[in-house]
Amino acid sequence: MPAPAFIAGDWGTSHLRLSLCDRGGRVLESRNGPGVGAVKADVAGAFFAQIEPWKQYGALPAVLCGMVGSTIGWREVRYLPCPARPEMIAAGALRFEANGHSITIAPGLSCRNRLMAPDVMRGEETQILGALRLEPQLAQGRQVFCMPGTHTKWVSLKDGVIEHFLTAVSGELYDILYHHSVLVNSKETVDGAAGGAVFKRALEKIKLYPDGELIHLLFEVRSGQLKGEIKQRDAADYLSGLIIGQDVSGAKRFFRADLAESNGVVVVSTPRLGELYAQALRTRDVAVRNIDGDTASLAGLSALYRVLEGVTDAA
CA within 20 to 30 Å of 23's CA: 34, 167, 229, 276, which one? Predict the structure, then answer.
């Protein structure tokens, strides 16, 4: 096995993914663990417990991103204001020593969004950095990124500079309505939409009624079941289609000028969720390219490591 050089970690509220990497950023081993929301106050202890099997390689430096840099994380790292150039992310990272290890935590970003409200992100900035490294052409001209998740981010870049973004609580809203409302009330339903025919039917509903507000459309998930027009096992699929469809519809309006300058939307996500958003975007005649979110995150963390440690070769 090549010599391990650093540890890369994407540490969100609900999930941790650590990768043991060589100098070139190739993953040698991986470990998964609980998010910072589950480990409570002992974030440092949770980290060192997870990397215990890797102590044999010495006190390797670690580069982390996500909610680990928030008020509930290990150390709070300030938000960098937009517009933000990619190199500002490395410059704004927090570095400190712990148990002999050099720890780096990436900063988040903040902006005043298109609704003139304060907006923030943590973790997605590192994925953007990774996407620009994976596909350097994305650092040219206008680009619009969609980063689906619990809190989906719509991001506008110009020549690699992150200018502004808008957050949609699409994933969290789906989870709340699925688990805590009468809209989806079937034991037959598989937790999570599959993006099948019923999902596409919901997307078409959003397209047919572009001025319809989500709050007025959601009850059809229940009434459709009561009238026999939606099968109980398909209710979650329809709910997902309405939420994602409305998310895309709103973003298309608020990013109209950005989209006119770009070649469509770059979706950075897990393959499954990314495909759902890709379907919704194509329904609204928006071109899509997909980048795997885990791959982008790792590429971004690797880029931070190389800058901060002065690595210039691809060993």
Answer: 34
